[in-house]
Automatic annotation (TrEMBL):
Keyword terms of this UniProt record: Acetylation, Methyltransferase, S-adenosyl-L-methionine, Transferase
Span of domain Methyltransferase small: 157-244
NCBIfam families: hemK_fam
Protein name in UniProt: peptide chain release factor N(5)-glutamine methyltransferase
Catalytic activity: L-glutaminyl-[peptide chain release factor] + S-adenosyl-L-methionine = N(5)-methyl-L-glutaminyl-[peptide chain release factor] + S-adenosyl-L-homocysteine + H(+)
Enzyme Commission numbers on file: 2.1.1.297
InterPro entries associated with the record: DNA_methylase_N6_adenine_CS, HemK-like, N5-glutamine_MTase, PrmC_N, SAM-dependent_MTases_sf, Small_mtfrase_dom
Domain Release factor glutamine methyltransferase N-terminal: 37-109
Any single GO BP term: methylation
Alphabetized GO MF terms: methyltransferase activity
Length: 297
């Protein structure tokens, strides 16, 4: 971790400069650094170390320590007033994690998706911006459909590979009559979806099931819930031969078997949907890479 030391404090007209070394509790100097100055410093450090999105990373970390979602949402006075010794130390601790290429979402422990604040933790996938587009497309399909859905007036949705629960919980929050069955083979994903559903008070409309749908006969565990109106999946679609080309943020912190091409792609999801007995007017929505789609076709 790093500690900011100030030199030439200007009592005789000098300018202020920074030198950085291993963290030591120079507490009397801590109050001389504002949030804006700390962001500038860590942005420079991240850039020097080749950290992607250096300024955004720095701003998110400082804002988080100050109790805000984004640096831009901070009140002007909070951007210019000195940080406390504890705040500086906390920023330094989180920034050292970023220097190890830990994704910002894992560092903060939460991330917004479709207006929901979701807990994030490795090795569970961080939802991509493209996944929000998938959710919006699904919502459009459901709201524009003239076909009856579900026994309770809303669609019965199956999510294959729920991860953090981002897709399932977004659909539940925006489709008040819907019900979701969310499955994943990873224990960490099951636990994280459960926790996020509880935080958002949506546990009463979601069934979270530990299940590896790639195993023969696994789909039979889902039959008691009846025909599905919608199957949605955003499976990890990174093949083994592509692993070494990934950024360190992915290689180091999101390692699991699913990342190596063992989760279902479009063809597998279509097969699962047929076995589950989708209604004639049902939809299958699956996000995949172009390379995976070509490989499966």
């Amino acid at each position: 971790m790093l500690q900011a030391l100030l030199s030439g404090l200007g009592r005789k007209g000098g300018t202020r400069g920074w030198a950085f070394s291993s963290w030591q509790p120079y507490l009397p100097l801590a109050g001389l650094l504002s949030a804006t100055e700390v962001v500038s410093h860590w942005t420079a450090v991240f850039e020097k170390r080749g950290i992607p999105e250096a300024q955004a990373s720095s701003e998110y970390i400082v804002a988080h320590v100050l109790g805000a979602k984004t640096f831009q949402s901070l009140r002007p006075v909070l951007r210019t007033q000195p940080l406390s010794p504890w705040q500086l130390q906390h920023v330094q601790k989180l920034s050292s994690c970023r220097l190890q290429r830990m994704p910002v979402q894992y560092i903060l422990g939460e991330w917004d998706f479709q207006g929901l604040s979701l807990k994030m933790a490795p090795p569970v996938f961080i939802p991509r911006p493209e996944t929000e587009e998938l959710v919006e497309w699904v919502l459009k399909e459901v709201t524009q459909s003239s076909c009856p859905m579900g026994a309770q007036g809303g669609p019965l949705i199956l999510e294959v590979g729920c991860g953090s629960g981002a897709i399932s919980l977004s659909l539940l929050s925006q489709l008040p009559q819907s019900r979701v069955i969310a499955v994943d083979k990873g224990e960490a994903a099951i636990c994280l979806t459960q926790e996020n559903a509880q935080r958002l008070r949506l546990l009463d409309r979601i069934q979270i099931v530990p299940l590896d749908v790639t195993l023969e006969g696994s789909w039979s565990h889902l039959l008691p819930w009846g025909p599905m109106d919608l199957v949605v999946s955003n499976p990890p679609y990174i093949f083994h031969q592509d692993m070494e080309q990934l950024a360190p943020e992915i290689r180091r912190y999101r390692k699991n078997e699913a990342r190596r091409g063992k989760m279902p792609g479009p063809r597998s999801c279509r097969g699962l949907a047929r076995r589950l007995g989708l209604r004639p007017y049902s939809r299958l929505c699956c996000e995949s890479s172009c390379s995976q789609t070509r490989a499966e076709n």
